[in-house]
Automatic annotation (TrEMBL):
GO BP annotation list: response to stress
Record-given protein name: MarR family transcriptional regulator
Protein's organism: Arthrobacter glacialis
Pfam short name (any one): MarR
Chain ranges of the HTH marR-type domain: 19-155
Single GO molecular function: DNA-binding transcription factor activity
Taxonomic classification: Bacteria, Bacillati, Actinomycetota, Actinomycetes, Micrococcales
């Protein structure tokens, strides 16, 4: 039995039919998150990483010089600065990143990817791609549709604003 389908049936039976579809959708997304997170965690844990740690390493690896101000990392990852500090502390302890003074802003601290960090993020990304992302258990067309639906929800919830569409140059 699908417990979410049963919960929806109960919602309707108790007079909450107008909320039943949304309850089922929200519950489904939350359960799917648990399943997806578990799959990702099973790949990253042997590499000594969590998804939060991987996200920061991957973000740094995408930059030109492997460095970002801590505040920029917080904004781009959409997490509280305290969370970034905690992740950086753990990554620094494992010698995967280091902190440096910002060269032009005395108030800012850069988080810098080390050679070991670059190696680890590439290894983790290859493992995630091979074991999870190329075999997600969801058909490609559904993945695209799901991402689009969730992006609309996230945008409507204030998670991000649509980028400005500039005209093509003449």
């Amino acid at each position: 039995m699908d417990p979410i389908a049963e919960a929806k049936r109960q919602w309707i039976a108790h007079g909450w039919a107008d909320a039943a579809d949304a309850m089922a959708a929200f519950s489904s997304v939350m359960r799917a998150h648990q399943i997806m997170y578990s799959r990702v965690d099973s790949v990253l844990k042997p590499l000594g990483l969590s998804y939060a740690r991987l996200e920061l390493l991957r973000l740094l690896s995408f930059t030109r010089d492997g460095a970002l101000p801590m505040a920029s990392a917080s904004a781009r990852l959409q997490v509280h600065p305290t969370s970034v500090t905690s992740v950086v502390d753990r990554l620094e302890k494992d010698l995967l990143v280091r902190r440096e003074a910002h060269p032009t802003d005395g108030r800012a601290t850069l988080v810098v990817l080390t050679v070991a960090g670059r190696t680890r993020v590439e290894e983790a990304t290859a493992a995630l791609n091979a074991e999870v992302f190329t075999q997600p258990g969801i058909p490609q067309a559904d993945l695209v549709q799901m991402t689009q639906i969730l992006a609309r929800f996230r945008q409507a919830s204030g998670d991000f604003t649509a980028p400005v569409q500039y005209p093509d140059p003449l």
